[in-house]
Write a structure and sequence with these properties.
This protein has about 500 residues and is of the alpha+beta class. It folds into 2 domains: about 200 residues, Anthranilate synthase, CATH 3.60.120.10; about 280 residues, Anthranilate synthase (4-Layer Sandwich), CATH 3.60.120.10. About 30% of the residues lie in helices and about 30% in strands. The protein is built from 11 helices and 26 strands. Strands 1, 2, 5, 11, 12, 13, 14, 15, 16, 22, 25 and 26 form a 12-stranded antiparallel sheet that branches. Strand 25 and strand 26 form a beta hairpin. Helix 6 crosses helix 11. The longest helix has 24 residues. The radius of gyration is 22 Å and the shape is globular. The two termini are about 40 Å apart. About 45% of the residues are buried.
């Protein structure tokens, strides 16, 4: 930990956020037990989060991140003249802006001059939360007035300002407790040291996840009647046949009453569907639980410059029952003409998106048509990278790449106009992005798929299928049901009882 003298020296250099950090051993803990000890220790965990990663469906990523209850958050809603971004501190709105929320977020991040320590992981504090699918209306003005009815009532953007966090190094078994101090506040150094002592003390207490007894299971309902969904797919096929589109993603929302703990749902989903992006957010009046397999975009500082990465993921098959069947399924997947054509389209979309913000000549496909295996399915993936133009921010990167082509279709903006016509309700979080914007300048956001919202004792799950010229409507309906299954099955597991 830095000394008070070092702290004062950094403050004199103009830094207005200075991290104090202590290390502890966490080799006998799990990310979930640490989340309960640290984020729930002084209340119900409101405005906290847990981020985990499972690499290749088989091993946990090196770092897990626990955001302790945030005092400050940013939320945005409304479009066009009704757009509004609010800064909320300790439950009260302290600032309101009526400009473009993405521009406000870019400017807000510049308010903080952070004294970063070398060797910290990519996320060591900053903003964490989500950009809902409909945030695209802050980017594409022609979509401002075409938004379908909103039946969920969640903000279009919600970001927690994370200034107290725990970073778990799953490789070394170490835990890093980080508290940011604002030298402009009285006793900032002493208060941050005191808070770190409290957190270390909290590690000594034993916790247990709530035991969930078997409870009543409630049936799932659909916002999109099956017959109407099939008709929407037929309409999309007609327009594709006319040459208006190459592909359109048509989705549906499924909801069911869910009265158990949202954290129990995360535990069940984590066991059922381990994924590269696993997240649990407690946003106060609603929770977000997700296990996304797919990156939207990553921005990271490297020796070459600021690297921007997109990994298009499309083409899915269930895992084979034996290694031989698994290999045969892989060969069938990568040689399927429909899957290959769709994947080529997504690689082109990724190249175009990154090309809008990258240095000339830096965009390249570094991996093509690889197969990634997860617990229940395998996917075709490719990797597209470029070096960011000088002077551009993470919001420039988001504007160029959001939302993912895998959730819209192509041509991208035209497909989104059709989605507004075909789907009965505003998408909300689904198809947007969940992740973080780090004080270190990095951004890592996943596509918000395989993601549930729990609000007012109701679980909402959404899924879409890619409609092309030769799509069979019934098969597309089944694909949406299959994609939504992991979260619904996780809810059933909780209702059956978790010990």
């Amino acid at each position: 930990m830095i000394t008070e003298l070092e702290f004062k020296s950094l403050a004199q250099q103009g830094y207005n956020r200075i991290p104090l950090m202590v290390e502890a051993f966490a080799d006998l803990e799990t990310p979930l037990s640490l989340y309960l000890k640290l984020a729930h220790g002084r209340g119900d965990g409101k405005y906290s989060f847990l981020l985990e990663s499972v690499v290749g469906g088989e091993r946990f990523g090196r770092y897990s991140f626990i955001g302790l209850p945030a005092r400050t958050l940013l939320r945005a809603s409304g479009f066009g003249a009704d757009a509004k971004t609010e800064v909320v501190r300790d439950g009260a709105v302290v600032e309101t802006d009526h400009g473009n929320p993405l521009d406000f977020i870019a400017a807000y991040q510049k308010r903080f001059k952070v004294a970063l320590r070398p060797g910290l992981p990519r996320f060591c504090g900053g903003l964490a939360g989500y950009f809902g699918y409909d945030a695209v209306r802050y980017i594409e003005k022609k979509l401002e007035a075409t938004c379908p009815p909103d039946t969920l009532g969640c903000p279009d953007i919600l970001l927690l300002q994370c200034e107290e966090l725990a970073v778990i190094d799953n490789l070394s078994g170490k835990l890093y407790l980080i508290v940011y101090a604002d030298p402009g506040q009285p006793e900032a150094y002493a208060n941050a040291k005191k808070r770190l002592r409290e957190l270390r003390e909290a590690l000594k207490y034993s916790v247990s996840a709530p035991v969930v007894k078997p409870s009543q299971s409630f049936p799932a309902e659909r916002d999109f009647d099956k017959a109407d969904y099939l008709a929407a797919v037929e309409r999309a096929k007609e327009l594709i046949a006319n040459g208006d589109f190459m592909q359109v993603q048509v989705g549906q929302r499924i909801k069911k009453r869910y009265t158990e703990s949202p954290l129990s749902l995360y535990r069940a989903l984590r066991s059922l569907n381990p994924s590269p992006y696993m997240y649990y957010y407690h946003f106060g009046d609603f929770h977000v639980v997700g296990a996304s397999p797919e990156i939207l975009v990553r921005q990271e500082n490297t020796v070459e410059g600021t690297k921007v990465t997109i990994r298009p993921l499309a083409g899915t098959r269930p895992r084979g029952a034996t290694p031989e069947k698994d290999k045969a399924t892989e060969q069938e997947l990568v040689n399927d003409p429909k899957e290959r054509a769709e994947h080529v389209m997504l690689i082109d979309l990724a190249r175009n998106d990154i090309g809008r913000i990258a240095q000339v000549g830096s965009v390249k496909v570094t991996e093509a048509f690889a197969v990634e295996r997860y617990s229940h399915v395998m996917h075709i993936v490719s990797n597209v990278e470029g070096l960011l133009n000088a002077g551009m921010t993470n919001m420039d990167v988001l504007k160029a790449t959001f939302p993912a082509g895998t959730l819209t279709g192509a041509p991208k903006v035209h497909a989104m106009e059709l989605i507004d016509q075909l789907e009965p309700t505003k998408r909300g979080l689904y198809g947007g992005a969940c992740g973080y914007l780090s004080y270190a300048g990095d951004m890592d956001v996943a596509i918000a798929i395989r993601t549930g919202i729990i609000k007012d004792q109701t679980l909402y799950v959404q899924a879409a299928a890619g409609v092309v010229a030769d799509s069979v409507p019934e098969m597309e309906w089944r694909e949406t049901e299959h994609k939504a299954r992991a979260l619904l099955r996780a809810a059933e597991l909780v209702e059956e009882g978790l010990e």
